[in-house]
Amino acid sequence: MISVTFTWDIPEAERLYRSWSRFYRDVQLGGPAFDDPGGEFVSGRFVKPGITFTSRGCPKMCSFCTAWRREGPIRELTIRDGYNVADNNLLACKAEHIDAVFEMLRKQSESIRFSGGFDAELMTERHVELLKSIRLHHAYFAADYPGALPNLERVSVLMADFHRNQKRCYVLIGESGESLSSAEKRLEKVYDLGFLPFAMLYRTDNSGTTGHTKEWRNLQRKWCRPAAFQAVMKAKAPTHDQ
Length: 242
Known about the structure:
By secondary structure, the protein is α/β, with parallel strands linked by helices. It has 2 domains: 1-36, no CATH class; 38-241, pyruvate-formate lyase- activating enzyme, CATH 3.80.30. Helix content is 35%, strand content 14%. The chain has helices spanning 10-21, 67-71, 95-105, 125-132, 149-158, 180-192, 214-222, 226-241; strands at 2-3, 29-30, 51-52, 55-56, 75-76, 84-85, 112-114, 136-142, 167-173, 196-201. A 6-stranded parallel sheet has the order 3-6-7-8-9-10. A two-stranded parallel ribbon has the order 1-2. Helix 4 links the parallel strand 7 (112-114) and strand 8. The longest helix has 16 residues, at 226-241. The radius of gyration is 19 Å and the shape is globular. 25% of the residues are buried.
């Protein structure tokens, strides 16, 4: 079984399919790159040990995202053990499902990661209390467009008791004609709100790039390395505080 995450990896996956088909009668090719909607999660299949999916899909229909197109509305799955929750939108699940996920997480020996990301718009005080009930390593949020910042500001207040290293944020840059300066200002704003930004350069074609310039790639690289951007932000701190 060959699972392909990114469309630009399809040619290599097809090469593997042809090669393995010479020796095995049942070779299957699929995954997100082929719009596979996903089924029940099997621990350890296609992902590292410790990663778990407890739901598929998303109720939102963001123009730059394919999760809702591929997987449909939110679907709750059987909860499997893991310490890294990779759901698209866990907070869109029913309260009973979320409670059951955290009950599972409290039993894990590793500190807990939420790499799939939380929807800042859906975050409540109740969810914060659930996070306080586990050994949290980090949780990701998202600020993929300027209009997402007000919700992130609200979450920054709700999670004021958590360290910056525990609060991380995916930031999509370079989409819809965004300028370099606008993208960097958003990244700086996310940092000022107490989160560690993780810049993601928008891609649309099968090559994995959209013709972005070296300046765009450098900006993305800088804002994926906390040591790099924290040094810059600390140097700028006096002007940011005014």
